[in-house]
Amino acid sequence: MFPEYRDLISSLKGHDLHFTRLFDKHNAMDQTIKNMEAGIESGTAFEIEALKKEKLMLKDELYSILRKASA
Question: What are the extents of the domains in the chain?
Fold first, then answer.
């Protein structure tokens, strides 16, 4: 996610607790979605779709933080 901000992500993860929590939550949700889609975890199509929407909102927030930090 956001390879152009790789160094900034590393820096923020070391200094910004809010960013770190959002980043970790995004990654955890991504894994949960993959597990549900693969049948490893149970989940309805509705639940998966809801998780994908929430994950996208997190990604948007992370991107906003990254853009502000890079300015």
Answer: 3-40+48-70
